Amino acid sequence: MKIELDYLTRIEGHAHLVVDREAGKVTSCQLQVVETPRFFEAMLQGRHYTDVSTIVARVCGVCSISHTLASLMTTENALQIEVPPQAQLLRRLLSYGEIAQSHLLQLYFMALPDYLGVPSLFHLLDEKQELIARALRLKRTANRICEVVGGRPIHPVTTCIGGFSARPEAGELKKLRQELVATLPDLEATVELFSAFDYPEFSRQREALCIAPEGHYPLHGNRLLTSSGDNYQADEYRSKIEEYISPNSTAKLARTERGSYMVGPQARVRNGHQQLSPMAVRVCSALNLNPAGLNPFENLKARLVEVIHYTEEALHTIDELLLTGMNQVLAKETPAEGGCGTATVEAPRGLLFHNYQYDKQGRLETANCIIPTAQNLAAIETDLQLLLPELLEQPEEQLRKNLEMLIRAYDPCLSCSTHLIKIDLV
Amino acid sequence: MKMKIGFFDFAGCEGCQLTVMNLEEELLQILQLVEIVEFRELMSGTAEQIEIAFVEGSICRPGDRERLQRIRQRSKFLVALGSCADNGGVNALGSDRTPEVLRQQVYGSDLPHLYTETPQALSAVVEVDYRVPGCPIDGHEFLAILQALLLKQHPELPSFAVCVECKLAEYPCSFDYGQVCLGPITRAGCQAICIDGGGHCRGCRGLIDNPRTSPYHQILEQHGLSVEEILDQYRTFNVNEKSS
Known about the structure:
The structure holds 2 protein chains of 2 kinds.
Chain A: E1 2-5, E2 15-22, E3 25-33, H1 40-43, H2 49-56, H3 64-78, H4 85-116, H5 129-150, E4 159-160, E5 163-164, H6 170-182, H7 184-195, E6 207-211, E7 220-221, E8 223-226, E9 231-233, H8 237-240, E10 242-244, E11 253-255, E12 261-262, H9 265-272, H10 278-286, H11 299-324, E13 339-347, E14 350-358, E15 364-370, H12 372-391, H13 396-409, H14 414-417
Parallel strand pairs in A: 6-12
Antiparallel strand pairs in A: 1-2, 2-3, 4-5, 6-8, 7-13, 8-9, 10-11, 13-14, 14-15
Helix pairs in contact in A: 2-3, 4-5, 4-11, 4-13, 5-6, 6-11, 7-11, 10-11, 12-13
Chain B: E1 3-9, H1 15-21, H2 25-33, E2 34-39, E3 50-56, H3 62-73, E4 75-81, H4 83-87, H5 99-107, E5 130-132, H6 139-150, H7 162-168, H8 193-196, H9 213-222, H10 227-237
């Protein structure tokens, strides 16, 4: 008998799950990514370096800021442009806003309905008015960070090569700080809400990869760390990570020589929990989240811990910006004539790689991008294959729900994962 | 009886649907007036009949065409949401090459499930009643169009150029920095947000109805800008628009 979940809902992008079972045994389990390929890497060829980040941001509306920043940093590495410290701080602040926004959307609107037993939060408009209002307030404030720094929440307009083409007014940052402080009671209520749920039990060994937590919790940086202790420069990624094509998926998948691996909130918490903010550490205990835990359903808890962490970090970053001022937010040097560069940033769903080669006229020759979900897909599929036999006794409706919940726990972002992955022809 | 509306997506970044989500408190108010019956990103479930279908993304595969036709059949109004749906948007950037070449370039192979055709706007497949331009859409423009439809009026887009909004806001002119700007020929409605952000207009809202190209060519010549620079800008969001 066949279980098919077509057009999985409450995830970003398009996927089907197809499970075959015979005589109580699972014979195959495939997560099929059916998102349309959009060929961004090819479309970037020949583009001037000043236009690349604007185009590549359109890979994904949910993580357009991460794509923009990864793209700018890659070009800056390739053309040897040094970004001023104040602009780096503003970029961190922008990332905090995006990650918090994306996490809150996932937690409240995509994951929570499963735990409350409704098809969507909109079905609770009358009974849970306060909960929905709270979700929207929290999301609003996270979006406000992106608006104040990036000009708008999706596809930022103030970011450019070398830093920023427009800076926020000090008054706006002060107001934003007040708004962030005002969300603290809502965040407390959110922690209380998510600490009361029973998360399905399921664990397996899997490797975790993120930016190395050197001085900061993983966010921007050029060194990477795996849970098995491998610490390497981002530009060595081609010798560490292999991209491959599966006949079931328009997304290219990724693996290391040790097999599939995980990126994202749980991977960052696992490798970088020593750098979590004091408030986030307390929330870890309140949620009963073991940082070294291997239950993928607990990605939800890790996501909430990160919302708290990035909110606290955003407050400190605003203070620092107000203290040091924002006199120089744009690099002054002239870009080098051509070159090759790699950069990594932590997007909401995990590690994002961009790698470009420019010719002497500053036009892009080749681009390679590896997206978080493409890295998680193989891990999700392996999880599903191992989880399924444990669930086969359950009524079909319950079984479907559990499978969907596992996929959603990873917060797959499929509109991204299919566009940007390029094979290396060796 | 609340009006039933649905959100649908094809090839795109889902940024326009996210912009609708980002209306937050205003979205809650809308929900007093309409019922969202389909929105895959946020809910499970489907509906038989829909008053207004908002459709994001471009049409790239044979299956897309059939799915869009089915959405059209069960919807009273169909509204294109964002530039990918409206004119192909950035998805059309690869249309100078065949899909076969693109597949080879990106995947290095030609497996059947990677098959796509040259991305098209919704209007190439079905009748589109109204459109919300932009990459991404402007949330308040979306609200204005929804409001008009709720009041059984015909929503209208601004017929003037971004340049007008920019001048009214007294932003410095991009051309004075030696930067090509598509503001003089691009449809207004964005409040010149990119110029406010220190950038220039890349034309994401598509062309105004009758762009006056000869004075525009003069401006470009006066500022000593090359044809290549102009085309670079033009070939970002307007690949499918006719140039002159």
